[in-house]
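As a warm-up, study this chain.
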Amino acid sequence: MLSVLTAHVPAPADEPQDRDPGFLTLAFTVVRALRREGRNAFERRCARAAETLPHA
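Now compare it with the structure written out below.
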């Protein structure tokens, strides 16, 4: 089936040079997730510390 399709395609499709190759999107997604998890962990730690502090 693939040979039938490629036989009828006159030329390979040209992709623009400014297209996001995917690894940038992956890198930004990982960094965003790490920052978000770090922020959540910090908030949990602060909440836990606030629970253990003696209230006046």
